[in-house]
Amino acid sequence: GARDRRWRLVAATGGDMRVVTLHDRTENAAAERMRVDFVANASHELRTPLASIIGYAETLADEAGDDPDLRRRFLRIVGDEARRMQRLVEDLLSLSRIEADKFRVPDQPIDLGRLIDEVCAELVATGNPRSGDLDCVVPGELPAIVGDRAQLSQLLHNLVGNAMKYGRAGTPVTVAAERRGSAVRLTVTDRGEGIAPEHLPRLTERFYRVDAGRSRTLGGTGLGLAICKHIVERHRARMEVQSVPSTGTTVAVTLPAASPPAAPAQAAVIKG
Ligand code: ADP
């Protein structure tokens, strides 16, 4: 944009080397730092599976291609790594789309109960490897909310997906919604490993993971909660994470309800 940038020239001499630094004082240093870290992290996350794909492809082209068992095994790894890159690219695209939409107020009337049912059915149908029930507790008379359907669906996918990933096998995950004054409160609860308190404030940072190895094994990108945070902000909602290590985690999202239709005027009959 036509933002006014002011540059300050700082010259320093060190030995016979001359260093000239340009400071953009209008740029928020912390935001810039985050952007640089983000690009570095994203590149690194993409480079790892890519290196593995290239390595296995080359081995297949040479000796391993002759052994049918080895060939199958290596091709499966190539497929897994490519899917990991695909998930990452999809999440990066989601994040940038949501950020670009930041100033457009979401305006679709949404039946959250129905959306919860849809997302839970999808997650069960896509054959998540986890065993355990997925319980949905939604009252019939939940007020409608106003939002962006696709984004709220993604929010639910990410939160319920995490609860299924990090919940203990054989224990249920509970998705509930209830009215709270002029808001609707959505909660997703698992009985899993939980999160130590020192990690809680950083969970929504892009690529922040408590256990990176475990997240990768479970197919995580480290972007799920960052995406949720952006969706929550765009919906003027609030997200809280409560967790007890080795017991479980509850993520609560409070969304403003749609303003109810004006109550029909009551005809008062005054008898004199
Ligand atoms: P990921 O793709 O790694 O799951 P997220 O952004 O969704 O990324 O979550 C960030 C990190 O927060 C995860 O790597 C995990 O360590 C932790 N986390 C998120 N949800 C839960 C949960 N329900 N139980 C335990 N840990 C969780």
UniProtKB/TrEMBL annotation:
Recorded catalytic activity of this chain's protein: ATP + protein L-histidine = ADP + protein N-phospho-L-histidine
Enzyme Commission number(s) from the entry: 2.7.13.3
Domain Histidine kinase: from-to ranges: 41-259
One Gene Ontology cellular component: plasma membrane
GO process annotations (BP): cellular response to phosphate starvation
Coiled coil: none
Keywords of the record: Kinase, Membrane, Phosphoprotein, Transferase, Transmembrane, Transmembrane helix, Two-component regulatory system
GO molecular function list: phosphoprotein phosphatase activity; phosphorelay sensor kinase activity
Listed name of the protein: histidine kinase
Taxonomic source organism: Sphingomonas rubra
First and last residues shown, out of full length: 133 to 404 of 404
